[in-house]
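Researcher: Going back to the complex we discussed earlier. I've cleaned up the inputs and rechecked each line, so this should be the final set. Can you rerun the prediction on the complete assembly and write out the structure?
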Amino acid sequence: MQAKLSVKNVFKIFGDKTDEALSRLEQGESKEQIFEATGATVGVRDANFDVDEGEIFVVMGLSGSGKSTLVRMLNGLIPPTSGEVLIDGEDIADCKKDVLRRIRREKVAMVFQHFALFPHWTVAENAAYGLKVKGVPAAERRERAIAALEKVGLGSRADSLPSELSGGMQQRVGLARGLATDPQILLMDEPFGALDPLIRREMQDELVVLQKELKKTIVFITHDLNEALLLGDRIAIMQDGRFVQVGTAQEIVSAPADDYVAAFVADIDRGRVFTAEDVSNAAEAVTLGEASAEDAMRAMEDLNRHALYVVDGANRVAGVVTYQDLAAATLDNGAPNPILEDVMLTEYPTVDADVQLYDLYGAASAGLPIAVTDDKDRLVGVVEPEAVFAQLSGENGEQDAVPPPSVEDEKIKEGAHV
Amino acid sequence: MFPDVIDTRPLRRAVDNGLNWVVRNWGTELEAAASPLLRLLNAIEQLLLATPWWLIIAILVGVAWLATRRWQLPLVVFLSMIFLGVMDLWRDAMVTTALMIAATLTAIVISIPIGVWMSRSTRVRQIVTPVLDLMQTMPSFVYLIPTVMIFGPGRIPALIATIVYASPPLMRLTDLGLRNVDPAVMEASQAFGATPTQKLFGVQIPLALPTILAGVNQTTMMALAMVVIASMIGAGGLGYQVLQGIGRLEVSRGLFAGLGIVALAIIFDRITQAYGKRLQARIGISEAR
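Model: Rerun complete. Updated structure for the full complex:
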C-alpha cells in the first residue's frame, strides 16, 4: 500500500550558500561547523519517513531541533532545499502554486501552537475559514463549521469571539478549523504546548477519543515525550535537524537508540507507555471439564506459576485456580482429584489488552495474575503482577542511563522558552 | 560666510525655465488631468450646500452616536454644529468640509495601495519613505508655487497641495498596520490555501484596519490644518475668513473662523477616533492574551 504521506531525503538549509552547506553536510560536518563556514543554518537534514493512512506520527524534539520546520515543509509553508514530500504520490516540494493551494484546501489542514485564530471573526467564522477559501456558500459553510465545532465540544460558542474563550477552548476552535474541511491529513504543530498542564492532558485524551472516530492521518509535533508516547502510533525523536530514532513508544522506551534518547526516556511515565499486552504472557489455561486438578497443578509446576486461569470450551474465562487452593483441597478431600469448579475463584482481575500499566496497579496488588481478555471475554493473555512492577521500574530494560548534562541544559532552556 | 563655490544663478534659472517649459507645453493637459479632482470637490461641495442644515446635523450626530453609543460625543458634535450656524459660518464650514473630504478621499485612494505595496516590498519602502519625509517637512508654500503656476490660482492647486500634505501619514500607517499583523495568523491563512488576494483582503487589511483608520484620522486633521494656506490660492471657506481677518486686522473675524475650524477638527477627529477604538476593541483583546 502506498503511504499517505511520504518524506524522502528532505533537507532544509536557511541562508544563501545552500549548495555549499549541502556538500559540507555530506562530508559529515556538524551544524555548528557549517554555520561558521557558510553562515547557513541547517534546519532539517535527510528526513525520511512514511506515514500511513489513519496513523498518528509524532515528531518529538527540543526547540531548535527543526521539528517546526519539518512540519511546515509537509504543506509547503517552507519549501525544502532538496528532497521530496509526497502526498498520495504527488510531490508538493516541486509543484505549481495552484497545485499546492489545492492540496492545502483539499487534503492537508494545520493546527498551530499559538492557535493563530482570526481575532476579527466569530468562532464559527474561524472554523469555516478553510471552506470560505474554497468558495463554499455561506450557509453550507456555517453548517459544516458548526458540525466541526460540535465534534470538539464547542457547538454552543459558535457566535463568540475568540478573545472571549479560554486558551483550551481557543485551541478547540483551531482544531475545529482544521477538521471543518474534512482533510485527510492533519498537521499539528505543538498544538497543546501553550496550554496549562491540566487542560493539556484533557485535550490529549480528547484527541485520542476523536481520532478513534475520525481516523485522520496526523503528524503531531511536540517537545513533550510523555505526550509523544501517549499519542503516537510511531514516534520520531529529532535532534539538530535529524531523526535519531523512529519507532513505537514501546520500542523507544525499551531500546533507546543513543544516550540522547535514553536521557529523555529516563524520566518518562512508564505506566502510560506500556499496556497490559506488553507484559502479558501467553494465554496458558486449563479447560473446564477436561483438565483435572492434577493436570492444573502439573501445568503450574511446568510454567513456574502459582495460579492458572480456567476457561470453558469457547476459551471464555471461567475463573482462576491457585496452586495453594488446589493443594489444600487435595489434602482435605483425601481424594486425588478434586473438581476444578469447586476450587476455582470466580472473582478475578480482568483487563483489556490496551489498558495502560498505570491502570493495572490496583489489579496487580491483589496478588492474583490478571486475565487479559478480548471483547468476547476470551482469554488472550495473562499478566503476572511481578511483570507489571518490573516493567514500571524499568528493571527488564537497559535504560538507566544517566542524562548527559548538556541535555539537561537544553531542557531548562526549553522550559524558559515556553 | 561660506565661500562661493559655484554660481547658483544658472542652476536656479534652469529650474525656473524648466517649470515654465512644463507650464507652456503641458499646462492644458495637466489641467485636464486634474479636472476629475475638481469635479469631485464641486460635487461634494454642492451636495453639502444643497442639504438642509438640520439634516447634516442629524447625520453627524447619528454617526457620532453609532461610533460611541454614549451621549457625550453626539452632544459635542451638536453644539459645535450649532456654533457654526449661529456664528454665520455654515456656508464656509461646508466649503471647508468639502475640501477636506475631497482631499481625504483622494488621499485614501492613492495612499492605501501605496501603503500595501510598501508593506510587501522592503525595497519600495526604502524608496517611498524618504519621499514621504520630504513631503512632510518641505514647507507647503514651496510646492504651492509650481502648482499655482501649472493650474493657475483656484481650487485645483489648493486641493493638490492639501493632498500632498495630508497623504504621508496614511501611507506610513497603512504600511505599519499591515506589517504588524500577527505573522502566525497570516501563516494560518496560507496553510488553508488562501490566495494572496484572499489573504490581503480577508485577513491582513481587516486586522490592520484600526491602524489604517488612525492614518485616515491623521489625514483629515492635516487636511483641515491646510485650509488657511489653501485659501490663499483660492480655496475659500473658513480659511478665507481667517485670511481676511488678517488682511483687515479684524481680530473677531479671524477668531470666530478659527474657532470654526477647531469645531470641525473636533467633530471629525473624535468621530474617526471613536470608530478606530471600536475596531481596536474587537480585535485588540485577543492579541493582548
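Model: Worth noting: The interface with chain B takes residues 75, 77, 101-105, 108-110, 112, 114, 116-120, 129-130, 132-134, 161-163, 167, 177, 181, 187 of chain A (CB under 8 Å).
Researcher: Good, that matches what I expected from the previous run.
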